UniProtKB/TrEMBL annotation:
PROSITE patterns for this protein: ZF_SWIM (PS50966)
Protein name (record): SWIM-type domain-containing protein
A single MF term (Gene Ontology): zinc ion binding
Stretches assigned to the SWIM-type domain: 588-625
Keywords annotated in UniProt: Metal-binding, Zinc, Zinc-finger
Organism, scientific name: Lactuca virosa
Length: 694
């Protein structure tokens, strides 16, 4: 709860003593903001204050941005499921001048239970303005479900504080004018009818249906699987079980008839899309003399995932996607689910030339949006893959540490090694040397001269060296500084980021017409519909029921890191300087891994030949470290170096040092408990093994 609203800035206009006392009491109430995605009246503390005609009003103050969360929470009442609709709304025009008054209202909204206020039951009362209603053969205008429910509440947006909403909830019982239950389980007359349940399907089912339709699942298949699940559970239990074939067919028709091209002019079409999809836009800045175009997209589902998997955990950033194909490349923010797979939770779309200009604006807007939903939300760290990214802004906005991931660098080096060097042994030597240089830099040693020596030692590989000198030598300064000053993210995180990048590539860049990539309105539409549908279905437990319709775009599964954990040690065969790993699908095939135990290993499998991190390299790394014969990871080396720096603190900071040591020991014990004693060669007693200079 926050402090009460300050009204010192408001002029003291003449009000009656009782009215002034009432508003003083209202504005002294705390603004309540429950840390849940949605909340109901049970989650708020209500105050009784004298209102109109000496009646006692039941009041509470909440952030205006969370009114929709309150409406959803009230609708999902387990004792009486329903849906609230806007029965009346009055809104002061934005440009209309007004005097700042204590009791001034910017917006008035009346929410009413969808089973009222009219009563279309036999003998029920219908308001005069609705008496001319003629029943029509339509699905859900739902006048036939009107049962005279009197439950309603009022939301007022205050001039004194536009960010706050005053909720007046006097009629909180789902009863008719006689005081009897009129719908839900408590109404005996609604047993066996749809009045037992909510008037509409849940948001989760609606999103599931739309996602399945977007990826090409037929209507008949969706209904067949749905009916089978209802029969399996023993019949209808809630409103979702009453899903109709007609509803799904209408949604399929709407998707089929939709068109991303809202105007021939792409810029005009973007503006129309933004206006129609305000709920999906957290930041928008059109082209101007001072600022370039920038658009931030986040759907409601993505916001929920960001709150769920981002709180207290890592947030990743894919800094560039589609630079060579799309008119405006994509920057993706991702979180990591329980399987440590990356889920995109926001997309930032800007032209190439403006990618580093508006970082603070869109990042602050995104952070504020999340904190509005959950004031306690805070990430543990932010992972970047570009050393030129605005690190100071990240630290200012998110108040967290920043990590660097070099998966993109490794991917580019590895891919070009495969392309420009024909001899596998030469590839392995080049990769091993690059890995050693990176590791030395992460230890705080090494500089540009290390790469100069590397190019001299392997100057016979002219094709690769020409590429390296032209592309990477100009970029190595920022990377060297990042390796020395920022902690490096783990291999598992790098694997998840690379897997997400490849998923997005398969799902987005699959259009038969290449000219469509030059339209931004197409990109916006596909991200908010099909692309979200694929990632939503990745998290859907029942996706295997539709496996016969899977296409390449629906490719999911585990990351290479997770796949490596399923390979048994018996499938790893050491042969001299190389290691063979038996393929898990075709056991007659064995993949050869060079530089075994190194993060810069090279594998002969098809996935590794494309420059990707594969499960065979990861398995060999695990295999050698468990036998205490593999080199420590870069992350562990930096962890140990950080402990050494802490232990070198002067006596004046001995408290900080002692706290750091105790925290390190606790982390060490957690790692031992998670990974077992098999990893003792790498992590056990890491504190006692380090030598500290006196």
């Amino acid at each position: 709860m926050s402090n009460a609203i300050s009204t010192a800035w408001l002029p003291q206009l003449p009000l009656s003593i009782n009215k002034m006392a009432r508003w003083d009491e209202i504005l002294s109430l705390p603004v309540q903001n429950p840390p849940t995605l949605e909340f109901s009246a049970f989650d708020l503390i209500w105050s009784k204050i004298e209102g109109h005609r000496d009646n006692m009003d039941r009041l509470a103050l909440v952030p205006f941005a969370r009114v929709d969360d309150f409406v959803r929470g009230e609708s999902n009442n387990k004792d009486c499921p329903t849906r609230f609709h806007v029965e009346a709304r009055r809104r002061r025009p934005p440009k209309m001048p007004y005097k700042p008054k204590v009791d001034g209202i910017l917006e008035y909204i009346l929410y009413w239970c969808s089973f009222g206020p009219d009563d279309h039951r036999k003998g029920g009362v219908v308001r005069p303005s609705r008496s001319t209603y003629i029943p029509k053969k339509k699905s859900a205008g739902r006048p036939n479900t009107k049962r005279g429910c009197t439950c309603h509440f009022i939301v007022k947006r205050l001039i004194a504080e536009p960010s706050v909403a005053l909720i007046i909830y006097n009629q909180d019982k789902h009863v008719d004018k006689k005081g009897l239950p009129c719908h839900g389980p408590q109404d005996k007359k609604s047993v066996g009818t749809r009045a037992m349940y909510a008037p509409f399907i849940s948001e989760d089912l609606r999103l599931r249906v739309l996602s399945l339709l977007h990826v090409g699942i037929p209507v008949e298949t969706i209904m067949q699987r749905h009916n089978e699940s209802v029969e399996k559970q023993g019949g209808v239990c809630n409103r979702d079980d009453l899903l109709t074939h007609r509803y799904v067919r209408i949604q399929e028709r709407n998707i089929r008839r939709s068109n991303f091209e809202l105007d021939e002019d792409d810029d005009v079409s973007i503006g129309i899309w933004v206006e129609r999809n305000q709920n999906h836009v957290f930041f928008y800045e059109d082209y101007s003399d001072n600022d370039p175009f920038c658009l931030g997209i986040q759907t409601e589902w993505q916001l929920q995932q960001m709150i769920r998997f981002g709180n207290g955990r890592l947030l990743g950033f894919d800094s560039s996607f589609g630079v060579n194909k799309l008119k405006c490349p994509i920057q993706s923010l991702v979180v990591f689910n329980s399987e440590n797979k990356a889920i995109p939770v926001a997309w930032i779309i800007t032209p190439v030339f403006s990618r580093s200009i508006d970082t603070h604006k869109w990042m602050r807007a995104l952070f504020n949006r999340v904190r509005t939903k959950d004031p306690t939300w805070k990430i543990a760290g932010f992972i970047i893959d570009d050393p030129l990214f605005d690190i100071l802004t990240i630290r200012e906005v998110f108040q967290c540490s920043v990590l660097i991931s070099f998966w993109r660098v490794r991917h580019a080096w590895h891919k070009n090694l495969m392309k420009r060097c024909l001899d596998m042994e030469t590839r392995a030597k080049l990769s091993k040397t690059l890995g050693q240089i990176v590791k030395e830099m992460c230890k705080g040693c090494g500089n540009v001269e290390s790469f100069d020596k590397f190019m001299d030692d392997f100057k016979e590989c002219r094709d690769f060296m020409d590429y390296f000198k032209a592309i990477w030598c100009p970029r190595m300064g920022p990377w060297i500084n990042a390796f020395k000053t920022l902690p490096v993210s783990s291999q598992e995180t790098s694997s998840a980021l690379e897997f997400h990048h490849n998923q997005l590539k398969i799902r987005l860049l699959n259009e038969p017409d290449p000219f469509i990539y030059k339209r931004v309105d197409w990109l916006l539409d596909k991200l908010a519909t099909k692309i979200q549908a694929y990632f939503w279905l990745d998290e859907y437990e029942g996706k295997d029921d539709f496996s016969r319709y899977w296409k390449d775009e629906w490719t999911s599964g585990l990351t290479a890191w997770r796949k490596s954990r399923a390979i048994p040690d018996t499938d790893v065969l050491t042969e001299g300087q190389t290691v063979k790993v038996v393929d898990q699908k075709d056991r007659e095939i064995a993949h050869v891994v060079w530089n075994p135990g190194s993060e810069f290993g090279i594998c002969s499998c098809g996935w590794g030949q494309k420059g990707n991190l594969c499960e065979h390299v990861f398995k060999v790394v695990w295999y050698f470290r468990e036998k205490s014969s593999g080199s420590a990871s870069v992350s562990l080396l930096q962890f140990n170096r950080g402990l050494i720096d802490m232990l070198k603190c002067p006596p004046a900071n001995s408290f900080i040092r002692d706290h750091a040591v105790s925290l390190a020991v606790w982390v060490n014990e957690q790692l031992r408990g998670k990974f077992g004693k098999s990893g003792r060669g790498e992590m056990v007693n890491s504190c006692t093994r380090m030598e500290v200079d006196s």
